[in-house]
Amino acid sequence: MSKFTLALVAGASACVGAATTAAIYGIGGRRQQETQTVTTTTTTLSKDPSRTIPPPPVAIRRDDPGVPAVPPVDPNGVFQYGFPGPVADLRAAPSLTSSFDRARRNPHWVAEHITPASLLLRNGDRRHSYFAEDHTIPEKFRAKLLDYARSGYDRGHQVPAADAKWSQEAMDSTFALSNMCPQVGDGFNRDYWAHFEDFCRRLTSFYPSVRIVTGPLYLPKRDAIDGKWKVSYEVIGHPPNVAVPTHFYKVIFAEDGNAGGNVSLGAFVLPNDIIPNDKPLQDFEVPIEAVERASGLEFAGLLPPARTKRLCKEIACSVIVKEYAERQRTMMSPPPTKGLPPATTMTKR
Amino acid sequence: MSKFTLALVAGASACVGAATTAAIYGIGGRRQQETQTVTTTTTTLSKDPSRTIPPPPVAIRRDDPGVPAVPPVDPNGVFQYGFPGPVADLRAAPSLTSSFDRARRNPHWVAEHITPASLLLRNGDRRHSYFAEDHTIPEKFRAKLLDYARSGYDRGHQVPAADAKWSQEAMDSTFALSNMCPQVGDGFNRDYWAHFEDFCRRLTSFYPSVRIVTGPLYLPKRDAIDGKWKVSYEVIGHPPNVAVPTHFYKVIFAEDGNAGGNVSLGAFVLPNDIIPNDKPLQDFEVPIEAVERASGLEFAGLLPPARTKRLCKEIACSVIVKEYAERQRTMMSPPPTKGLPPATTMTKR
């Protein structure tokens, strides 16, 4: 996987739920490109505009009386008025840890952990939880309840409430808007995305410990008219405040339960759009590096390749469709008698 | 200024160089809004969908045998595989300090400092400087020289080379791509934006120390067809890699030279587009809070209001148009005899 340069771009027909395309460029082809003459529109005064490789560093002539021994300026002095940031608003809650994107008012990422035991506990009830603004984030950078009102988008949990039933406090902590992004409701948040979240929970039938990092993406798409790559997303609120992501990712670490043991890794990118229920989940699997390039984040740099397995090679990566109404009934029904979740819902390869 | 909620949005006719609009909402009006019934499309199971204010916190029933005394999960455990970031790639160079946006491959901000004395030194010559990729940034998040090739955009300095003539090393350090954004060339980078940079330098005729923070913005614009606010920007490179900002900001701190003295503050937002030379610079002045909301950054939180003055009340905020060819000639001519820059080019109010 490290032999490739990867870029995530939106599929041409993303609006009908088609998969994100992972454009894969062999390094060989890229190297060849790099030897081409580069002619750019630029303001450089270089006599040779094709020259872009810097020359060997030239020692500063400290003996020249014109060159100051002490720099005449102090670029860091402006920090006396405040350091610009960005501040990532790390939030450690019972059910999740997250980092917030102050420019787009969505999380950068939200990390969670589920186990067979944590999912069996049923002390939290979402009827007692309420969506709430995250007051740990300064007012001017915060997502507001009003931003979502009449926007047409769901307040879409990044860590699902259903993963945090082990206590009411844990469940409540998933209802902060810093754990939300605007998501398409019918056909996505209430359907395919929910089935995908269910898939993640079912992984605990095979793995004693499952860690998931979830977050938004803003991917470029090729313009049909001028052929240029463009990122385009709505911003909801009056005045506009919260960005509507074009896609969402989940990076899944399914652990074998042994210290220093194997980790089955899966990365998925889904468009924030209606996805037909019969679309195979595996169509949305991408190399983890593609999520990293698209998000500017890194997820598994410290995980040795020798310990890494590919999740979708070990188990069947597919969703089970439960209708929304049925799922809501199940969620509202009393807790089941204790026991392992049915393992028959997932196939071991 | 603190009495208002501010949002930066792109003007309807930004493509012809029209100014960014600072939408100003009185808090009074906003409060009224907040008392309205909120009906949202949401998956909450609350019996009363209009209720969005969280109830008083309920103590966890620790005496309930179903509630674990020790949380059954550890959301931070995933960091054993690497902390996702974001990493801001702080760079401290002789002529600038910057922070890099790994998702959009542009700086978040670049800070510089100029003084009458620093601008008089002429040891650096841009003919000896070369554009260079910033190898301190991991390859997968870096802006590449090839991304700009044939893109139609200039490699636009955020800290201008002309502000760093005091040593060749200082000038060279402005040529790293982490100090660049794709900028429209003719009519912007080579014209109005260059005149604006010249305005900043001329400030040293009145202020003994001038600090400037410069960076890109990606502002929403109201869609003429559906009335929705949308952010839309091109991404250059093959595969697409570097975002083309819709706007650029400069936050200027003009200091009176006394420790704890007065600071004249000016914030400007210009569209990354052709701007007619006769457009008044003051049309682009915005409240600093508007730049903060748009960028997710904070610039002057530690500057006491009692020390703050408004730059454009003290001096005439206007550009002087020098044609590109003439400017290039001036830049390439030998250094002038030492002396203060001509004060006649700027008017004291």
Structural descriptors:
His-Me_finger_sf (chains A, B); 349 residues; DNA/RNA_non-sp_Endonuclease_sf (chains A, B); 14 strands; Extracellular Endonuclease, Chain A; alpha+beta; homodimer; 7-stranded mixed beta sheet
Topology:
The structure is a homodimer of 349-residue chains.
Chain A: E1 4-9, E2 21-26, H1 27-34, E3 91-92, E4 97-101, E5 106-114, H2 116-120, H3 145-148, E6 154-157, H4 168-172, E7 180-183, H5 185-189, H6 192-202, E8 209-217, E9 221-222, E10 229-236, E11 242-243, E12 247-255, E13 263-271, H7 288-295, E14 308-310, H8 311-314, H9 324-332
Parallel strand pairs in A: 13-14
Antiparallel strand pairs in A: 1-2, 3-4, 4-5, 5-8, 6-7, 8-12, 9-10, 10-11, 12-13
Task: Explain the overall architecture.
The structure is a homodimer of 349-residue chains. Chain A has a single domain (93-345), classed as 3-Layer(aba) Sandwich (Extracellular Endonuclease, Chain A). The model of chain A is unreliable at 1-5, 12-60 and 331-344 (pLDDT under 50). Chain A has 349 residues and is an alpha+beta fold. Chain A has nine helices and 14 strands. In chain A, helix 7 (288-295) links the parallel strand 13 (263-271) and strand 14. Helix content of chain A is 17%, strand content 22%. Chains A and B meet through strand 1, strand 4, strand 5, helix 3 and helix 4 of A and strand 1, strand 4, strand 5, helix 3 and helix 4 of B.
